[in-house]
Amino acid sequence: MFGLFKKIPVDIDDKAYSASKKSTLLRVCLSNGINIQHKCQSGICKKCAVVEHTSQGDITVLACQRIILPTQTNRFSTIK
């Protein structure tokens, strides 16, 4: 029961944040005052693109579609 509310570590622009399980990266950014471009929150406009740093290399993802999961590294850089 207590594991349902465990926060997941998220690294955005080399700063540590925490997120609830299954929240989107866009929601984490907005709730922590990180200025990230967005318009539709569904991926249609593609303004919320960020770089995700993975063990296989850097990839571009949409923050509104990237679900935060405890099994992933969750390291991102915003695109200025």
Low-confidence parts: none
Count of strand segments: 5
CATH architecture assignment name: Roll
Structural class: mainly beta
Shape: globular
CATH topology: Ubiquitin-like (UB roll)
Report the major sheet. 5 strands, mixed
Name the beta content range: 35-45%
Distance between the termini: 40 Å
Mean pLDDT across every amino acid position:
91
- Helical percent range? under 10%
What is the CATH C-level name?
Answer: Alpha Beta
Side by side, the strands of the main sheet go 2-1-5-3-4
Domains (count): 1
Q: What is the tally of helical segments?
A: 1
What order do the helices and strands follow? Answer: EEHEEE
| Full CATH superfamily name | Beta-grasp domain
Provide tags for this entry:
Ubiquitin-like (UB roll), 5 strands, 5-stranded mixed β-sheet, mainly beta
3D structure, described in words:
One of its GO terms (molecular function) is iron-sulfur cluster binding. This is 2Fe-2S ferredoxin-type domain-containing protein. Residues 6-80 form the 2Fe-2S ferredoxin-type domain. The longest helix has 7 residues, at 25-31. The protein has one helix at residues 25-31, and strands spanning 7-12, 15-20, 49-54, 57-62, 75-78. The mean pLDDT is 91. The chain is mostly beta strands and 80 residues long. The chain is built from 1 helix and 5 strands, in the order ββαβββ. The protein has a single domain (8-78), classed as Ubiquitin-like (UB roll), CATH 3.10.20. Helices cover 9% and strands 35% of the residues.
